[in-house]
Design goal:
The chain is mainly β and about 500 residues long. It has four domains: about 150 residues, no CATH class; about 80 residues, Immunoglobulin-like (Sandwich), CATH 2.60.40.10; about 90 residues, Immunoglobulins (Immunoglobulin-like), CATH 2.60.40; about 140 residues, Porin (Beta Barrel), CATH 2.40.160.20. It has three helices and 31 strands. A hairpin with a 4-residue loop joins strand 24 and strand 25. Helix 2 packs antiparallel against helix 3. It starts with a helix and ends with a strand.
Amino acid sequence: MDKKRILCFVLIGAILFLAGTGYAQTKKLKSIGRYTFVRIRGNVPTQEIMKTLLEKYAGEIKQGFEAAGSGELYLLFLEQLRTASFEEKTLPVGDKLMWMLFRSGGKVKVVLDVEWAGQKPLDVFSFHIMKDNVRYEFVMPKPCGNISLRGMERVEVEVPVPDAVCQLAVSPAKVNIKGAVTVDMSGSQNAKSMEVDVFGPDGAKIASQTLTPGAPKWQLALDKPGNYAFKGRAVNAKGKVSTNACEAKAYVRFAPVAKLDITGLPRKIYVGMPVTFNADSSTVEDGKLAKADFEIWDEAGKSVNRYTDDQPPYSWTTVFKEPGKYDVTLAVTDDSKAVSEPVRISLEVFQKRTFFLAEAGPLFAKGSHGPYFGGRVGVLYKLVPDVLDVVASGGGSLSLKSDPWKSFAFVNLLLNVHAQKTFFGAGFGLSSKAREDQKASTELIGNVGVDIFNNITTIGSIFFEGRGALGASRSLSKNHKLMLGFRMLF
């Protein structure tokens, strides 16, 4: 019998004695090799040998683990033993084992708290298993395959950090100039933070933003038309940047361009004159014109009138009620609700007060009503526009009948009051004699009329005028004149 076998017998005998007597102190193991749990041939246990070990001795291994008080490690031991990497190691003299399984009399037994006390270090195979963050080291002395638990230690197991996956969405995909777009990276996975860069239509980076899972959205306004690119990345808890493509695009529409015209603009604009402002020359690159907003501002910067036209030809006809200097602005909106920059024109509005006057029409004089055709020229001045006028005129009347009727001259000075298109008034006049047997006379005049057209700078009216001579010696029945005429103001 060789020395190794003798040592194994001695060792196992000592273990049996200590286990049988229940001796509580550390068991000194001076030799090994006789009472083996399983005989392993060769120096290195191969995977095939380990599979054989599991297939043949699984029940005994379970029995031994339960006897050692480590039954909860049995299944994990078998599972990890199949793929474990074995390490050759040398245990120094004095090294301790928590327990060792061995076989005696055909039965599996266990000895606790074992110390290697041989004359030289013990060669073993070593491998580890993990359970609940505790690493257990098992060893098998060479060549006897006694399963031994050498030790255990708690370890911090590093949880694998998955790679971040970036997801980026931008809405809306089309936006008006200076409109806001929302960057949304809430769909990113395994991210501690997210970053996004914004590139303008010229390709230059114009903005960057860092987001978090708690605040994954960012809103910004884009103030230039064209295509914008958004490039994102996600970073996991270890600082590793995502590698998947993470991009989005947005398009900023070109704003419409407003152009304001005044249709048929005369050299001067007068109060009450219809003026047409036109927006149909405005241009829209992305879409079509939807509406035009006109507004009139006075010299103090106060809005005095406004109008919105949402149908072609996008124009506004209005009148100015007061003279003065005004600004007219126009802003147009396209069908995507993009609004142009306003354009402005300045103009001055005048109040026409002075008109030249020409009047003509049939006239009848005296009791037998001698027929005449009269005509006058003069000046009309609006004392209160559209309310009160003063009229000064003069002319002559041609007799259409022979003696005793004579052609005569006459002048008027009248005040006329207006009620919309109708006017009436009174005044005084002078008239040369209309008959050989008369004298020149001072006359009281009354008139009434109606405007048949009024385009502010020219006005046409029909009027009726009655004149009666003043004086106690003058009979109204023989000293009166009646005239129906047409008046033209310009």
